[in-house]
């Protein structure tokens, strides 16, 4: 790349860091990329670090030494996350979202880049300190959410299927009990999709009783994998129903009541914000 003025270099360097989160980048990479001295690169990074942290855009971790470099960690302050989730909760309370069985229509929110990116960044902030190898979700509505989280953690995504597909090759299948209606269902995962003893972060769009997430945890035992965290976009916490199969999880929103006749829904920020 040709030699850039400092202002242009700052812009390009910032963009490079944003699209390479959680990756240790040696200073020599930037020095060679911009035909600049390492001292100049260090000064530029100090400016970017100050802006990132003051504006709540994330953190820059610098490691000294020959094997060192800089790593961008996407972070969103909890107060800004709460502000965004309050807006999303208002959207979820729209009467037209009620589906048979008390479920909510959320596909439009999960299909909006402005929302899905913010939700992904929230989960990435929450779980950024964990050692994770892959993000796991179950088809289908959880897929865009899982990829949003993965993009900020710079990790691959593993998708659990409802049935075995020939294009997936050899697979492991298990039966699990749906927590909400107690029906026996099946889920399957390609043997090539996940390495043995992987550390897995489970991301799901909706949890009523937790049967699907428990099924994924059981499936992971077949791979000798470890669940290091569970993130749920919306959980059901309706009065009179407190039979969750999963207790160790982080939710961003919770439904506390659904009145089918009046089509009234009450949605509040999830357990991540309980201490606020």
UniProtKB/TrEMBL annotation:
One of its GO terms (biological process) is negative regulation of purine nucleobase metabolic process. InterPro entries: PRTase-like, PRTase_dom, Pur/Pyrimidine_PRTase, PuR_N, PurR_Bsub, WH-like_DNA-bd_sf, WH_DNA-bd_sf. SUPFAM superfamilies: PRTase-like, Winged helix' DNA-binding domain. It comes from Chengkuizengella marina. Residues 109-243 form the Phosphoribosyltransferase domain. One of its GO terms (molecular function) is DNA binding. Residues 5-74 form the Bacterial purine repressor N-terminal domain. Homodimer. Belongs to the purine/pyrimidine phosphoribosyltransferase family. PurR subfamily. This is Pur operon repressor. It comes from the Bacteria. Keywords: DNA-binding, Transcription, Transcription regulation.
